Amino acid sequence: MGDYLGLYYPFIDFRDEAWLKLTSLYWDRMARIVPAGYGLRDSSTVAEFKDGGYVLDYHPSGALGAPAKAFRALLVSHGERLAQRYGLHLRESWPDDPSTLHSRAAQFGDTRLAYVFGPKIAAELIDDLEALGLAQRGGARDPRWIGMHPRLEAMYMTALADSMAARRKAQPVSDDALSHIGIGDVTMEGLAEALLDDDGEPPPIPSRAAEQLMAGLAINMVVPANLEDLPARRLLDFRDQYAGERAAFQDQIHAMVASLDTDGIGDPDALRDHLQIRYEKLLQPPLADLKRRLREVRIDTTTAVMNIKTTAPAGLTGVGLLMLHTRPLIGTGAVALGVWGVWHGQRRTRRTLLSERPATSYLYQLET
Question: In the chain, what is the straight-line distance between the N-terminal and C-terminal CA atoms, in Å?
Answer without folding.
Answer: 27
